[in-house]
Amino acid sequence: MHRLFRSVQAVMDGLLEQQYLCNRTVATTLFLAAHLRKPLLVEGPAGVGKTSLAQALAGALDTTLVRLQCYPGLDEAKALYEWNYQKQLLYIQVAAGNNRHVWEELRQDIYTPEFLLARPLLKAFLSEKPVVLLVDEVDKSDEELESFLLEALSEFQVSIPELGTIRARHIPFTLLTSNSSREFSDALKRRCMHLYIPYPTVEQERAIVALKVPGIDEVLANQVVNFVHSLRRLALKKSPSISETLDFARTMLLLETKRLEPRVVTQALNVLLKYQEDVEKVMAMLGDLMPEVQEEDSSPAAQSMIPDVSAADEKTGEPQGVDLSRFNF
Fold first, then answer.
1. Are 259 and 224 in contact (CB under 8 A)?
2. Are residues 8 and 65 in the same domain?
3. For residue 132, what is the domain's CATH number?
4. Beta strands 132-136; 65-69: pairing state
5. How far is CA 217 from the centre of its chain?
6. Pairing outcome for strands 116-118 and 81-83
7. C-alpha of 238 from chain center
8. For the chain, how many structural domains are there in total?
9. Are residues 138 and 282 in the same domain?
10. 206 and 190: one domain?
11. Residue 38: which domain range?
12. Which tens digits make up the pLDDT trace of 68-85?
């Protein structure tokens, strides 16, 4: 077992080194999924950091992230393996020529691992070292693929008719992400640990901005986060994600603005909103949505809400124990 999973606190600190803030609930779920060797189903709205969690976990484990991006129509062949038909054909032409008597021998030769094109799932199973397997946006796939994943991830083995059963050399840490666009079968949920990641609270998102956008003024960061949260309370076609909050904060720095002003927000609103009808809706009520500058935002009490992520002990190189128990994203 990797040292990252020696304790829940080690998981929190390891992800923090990858600039991913997580609370004890998230860290505990990862810790248990690793020790129980169960896949982890991560659900939540789009843009709350589900994919980033897998990326940060791979970084903390110093291993490869193998990603299977799901979409409607994705089938077993594209998820597991394909035969390299061009290479098989060339082999047959070179080896056989016009001699039909060697066909049986050729037929056996061309269905060997040499001619196999491993797709993400099989690639994770055949890896020489444990990897992180990300099955991204599994809710976009068809139910047939869900049934196949259920079989493959329950025993961590797959069957290839020409080669037989292939078992995983190392059990990958598997995360399945979903934007909750459809329900999954009870059988899939029963075989997975479950984690729901909502949008972060104002306090949590302030900490994320402080970590990801170094140098931003604290009052400006508070205004950016408060403004984004006011947008998320509206009935928009697409609410701003965490990454868009960070982009908006960086935009304010690039535009050299000290405080959030309607003029600047109007110019940069398309950083947050990606549909024109959302832009028009927000523009019509922009005055009511603009956050006010509050004196307490820059007080020591407000500053203490943001964790010290300066990071590691200079002597040992180990991450400091940062109490992130109030964060839940």
1. no
2. yes
3. 3.40.50.300
4. parallel
5. 28
6. antiparallel
7. 19
8. 2
9. no
10. no
11. 3-80+119-196
12. 999 999 988 889 988 888
Decide which of 137, 162, 196 is a domain's last residue.
196
- Does residue 93 lie within any of the structural domains? no
Counting every residue written for the chain, the total comes to: 329
Inter-residue contact 16 to 169 (CB < 8 Å): no
Condensed to tens digits (0 to 9), the pLDDT of residues 107-147 reads: 667 778 888 889 999 999 999 999 999 999 999 998 888 88
Please tell me what DSSP assigns to residue 312. B
Distance CA 158, CA 168 (A): 8
Least Cα distance to 126 among 51, 66, 208, 191 occurs for: 66
| Average pLDDT value over all residues in the chain | 85
- For 88, the token pair is 């098989």
User: Taking the complete model, does pTM exceed 0.70, yes or no?
Assistant: yes
Instruction: Extract the tokens encoding 269.
Output: 């609103």
Q: In angstroms, rounded to a whole number, what is the distance separating the alpha carbons of residues 270 and 264?
A: 11
In angstroms, rounded to a whole number, what is the distance separating the alpha carbons of residues 261 and 223?
10
Domain end, chosen from 176, 196, 216, is at 196
Q: Is residue 102, in this structure, part of any structural domain at all?
A: no
Instruction: Give the relative orientation of helices 218-232 and 202-212 as an angle to the nearest 10 degrees.
Output: 130
Q: In this structure, which amino acid lies at residue 232?
A: R
**Can you give the C-alpha Rg of the chain in angstroms?**
25
- On whether both 44 and 134 belong to a single domain, the answer is yes
